Amino acid sequence: MEMDNRYRVDATAIASSNPDTGEDIENALLEIQPENSTLTEIPRNCRSDVTTEYSSVDHGWAWVVLFGGFFISFFVVGGQKSFGILYVELSEKFHVSNKALSLTQSLAGFLQQFLGPISAALSRRYSYKTLICFGGLMAGGGLVLSSFATSYEVLYFTYGIITGIGYGMAFSPSVVMIADYFNKYRSTASGISLAGGGLGGMFFPYLIRYLLTEYGLHGALLVYGGIMWNICVCGLLIRPLKEYTSKSKSHEESTTRKLKITSIVNTICEKITKFTKQVLLTIKELEWNLFKQLNCILLFFAVFFGMFGYNSLFNIVPPFIHEIGLSTEDGAFVLFIFGLTDLIGRILFGYAMDVFPKHRHEMFATTILLFGSGIVCTSLLRRKLELCVLMGCYGLFAGGYNGTLMIMAVEYVDLERLPSTWGFICWSAAVAFLLNPLATGAIRDSTGTWTHAFQLSGAMSLTAVLILIFKFLKTAKESRSEELC
Known about the structure:
Layout: H1 2-17, H2 19-32, H3 61-81, H4 83-94, H5 98-126, H6 128-146, H7 152-181, H8 186-228, H9 230-236, H10 251-259, H11 264-284, H12 294-310, H13 312-315, H14 317-323, H15 328-355, H16 360-378, H17 384-403, H18 405-412, H19 418-447, H20 451-484
Helix pairs in contact: 1-2, 3-7, 3-8, 3-9, 4-5, 4-8, 4-14, 5-6, 5-7, 5-19, 6-7, 6-8, 6-9, 7-8, 8-15, 12-19, 12-20, 14-15, 15-17, 16-17, 16-20, 19-20
């Protein structure tokens, strides 16, 4: 046994000093080891760093990453859906037109959607953790700076631009990373991750209402910004799939890097230039020839018109409730009901499209038809119970529409073109998020009521249904022509 111990110590020492031969020595020892020997196995961390990998696909740390993705969606989407609660307070503080104040949310929503495909692509180069933590810092920092705003013009920069960039940089990487960490349970994991947005839509209206009551607008935005910094905490939960890498650098490269002296200004300029080139390259690599396909163009327009109406649900409902004489607490409760049914709709229609794949187009068009009709009817109601029932009903279909966009994108293009297609879908939604608050705010200023704003939003959503019907008839005609041939 003394000889066995000597072999074990020597092998471990050699494995530690020379990882390329450590595993061979261990195998040789196992061959000469007696059957009843108590020789312990050489620790795995003494073996080659090149061959050791950390695999957590579908198990282990992947579920911790999913936990982080769930709460990133919770913070970002929940925060966006709760701006209507802040809208009422900001309007009373700055006494500006609805059109001017709406530009704040327009910028934030536009940047969140527009930067989605860009941040998802950049995360492949700079890592998910880097992009998410950067986005969290920007989102929280913008809200903290907004608490010190002395005019609504300042909010354009602090909330509209800084917080909007933060949302855009944090959200898309948190969705895309799920595909890397899950294979067998990818659909389930994606559903759980996006469900965080529905839960956030239920929770944040009450939270913001409480903060406004206890601390006022300044204190509420300050605390709200601190809460958004938890996005960084979620980002820190992400660790690479490979614990060790096989990258090695020569002694000459290391020495050169250590000896290289550059000023801080030059370093920052180089980083900004490199980042800008990467963004432009990402945009250039998108498959712009998709705009030569009529079906894709119809899909992008359907998304634009549908999102125009969807954006109204959580932007103009709170000020409308305030207009008809109900309290802000009532507005928070109505948004809670909408968030609950929105969450259920995402899961329910996603499951239904898996069970009935041949009827996906019909179900997708039906969701837009019903929530678009509900938007028009909202302006006719004046009681809390009526609003809760209606918001609950079309929240179900609004969630079904928003939660199945990715599924419908796959129906229109092959998987190789899906990243570019999804990027254009995000940009279509970005334009809708930019124009909707401006248009509805201008209508409110000119008419003195939110009624016509609801009618415009509902009509835009119903236009998306007409586009999908046209696409369905076109496909049916092409199918009949192929059968005749």
